[in-house]
């Protein structure tokens, strides 16, 4: 439904609610004596047997209260208390039953809420998407190194200098790649990369290399992320 038609419906409903308030005003203002009038109006509009019976019932009760009050009045102008209580009960009961009848008689629709546009997924920065994709490829390549090192070597994982064409996300083989490649990928100086090369054969994993080669702590995170050490098969 268009927003405009929703607004128009809301306006019509608001007017009908105001106009139909007399359904409550009449029973309250007359202390129940004319409570049957709104029921008669609803019966004419809805043409339902149940509503007709309600109109007749309230009419009979109202006549009974009015007649009883006239007969038993004590001369003070005040109605006997049983009929006063009965009138109050009529007011409460009539208002409760008229609440639903009023909406139906005046065709007051239920409140309609404008549909909320579906939230669009936030656009992902292409650079972020590219970095995340590369990280996922590195994770997969490291798993391949552990599970099938021979295939990993054939694919050139960790050896960008061999240009085998397999995208490993930017890994470097710390135990096989040239020092200049290690320096570029891991953010090390030439001297620090040379320490990695000099200590080959003394480490079997990256954590051992970090300690043995005494590499700067500031680069440990990058080395762990980009570096790979092929397992030694005995």
From TrEMBL:
Spell out the SUPFAM superfamilies in the cross-references: PsbU/PolX domain-like (SSF81585)
Organism of origin:
Actinokineospora bangkokensis
- Organism classification, top ranks? Bacteria, Bacillati, Actinomycetota, Actinomycetes, Pseudonocardiales
* Keywords (A to Z) from UniProt: Membrane, Transmembrane, Transmembrane helix
Keyword Membrane applies: yes
Write the protein's name. Helix-hairpin-helix domain-containing protein
Mind telling me which residue stretches traverse the membrane in this protein? 20-44, 51-73, 79-98
- At the top level of its lineage, which domain of life is listed? Bacteria
């Amino acid at each position: 439904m268009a927003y405009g038609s929703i607004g128009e419906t809301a306006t019509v409903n608001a007017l009908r609610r105001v106009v139909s308030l007399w359904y409550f005003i009449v029973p309250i203002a007359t202390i129940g004596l004319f409570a049957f009038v709104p029921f008669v109006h609803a019966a004419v509009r809805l043409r339902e047997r149940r509503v007709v019976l309600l109109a007749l019932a309230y009419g009979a009760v109202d006549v009974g209260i009015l007649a009883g009050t006239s007969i038993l009045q004590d001369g003070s102008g005040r109605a006997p208390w049983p009929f006063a209580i009965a009138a109050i009960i009529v007011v409460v009961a009539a208002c409760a039953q008229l609440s639903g009848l009023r909406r139906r008689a005046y065709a007051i629709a239920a409140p309609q809420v404008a549909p909320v546009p579906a939230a669009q997924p936030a656009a992902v920065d292409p650079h972020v998407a590219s970095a995340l994709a590369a990280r996922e490829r590195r994770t997969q390549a490291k798993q391949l190194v552990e599970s099938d090192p021979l295939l990993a070597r054939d694919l050139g994982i960790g050896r960008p200098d061999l240009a085998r064409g397999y995208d490993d996300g930017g890994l470097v083989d710390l135990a096989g790649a040239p020092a200049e490649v290690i320096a570029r990928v891991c953010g090390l100086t030439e001297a620090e990369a040379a320490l990695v090369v000099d200590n080959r054969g003394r480490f079997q994993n990256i954590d051992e290399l970090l300690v043995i080669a005494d590499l700067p702590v500031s680069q440990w995170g990058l080395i762990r992320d980009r570096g790979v050490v092929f397992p030694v098969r005995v």
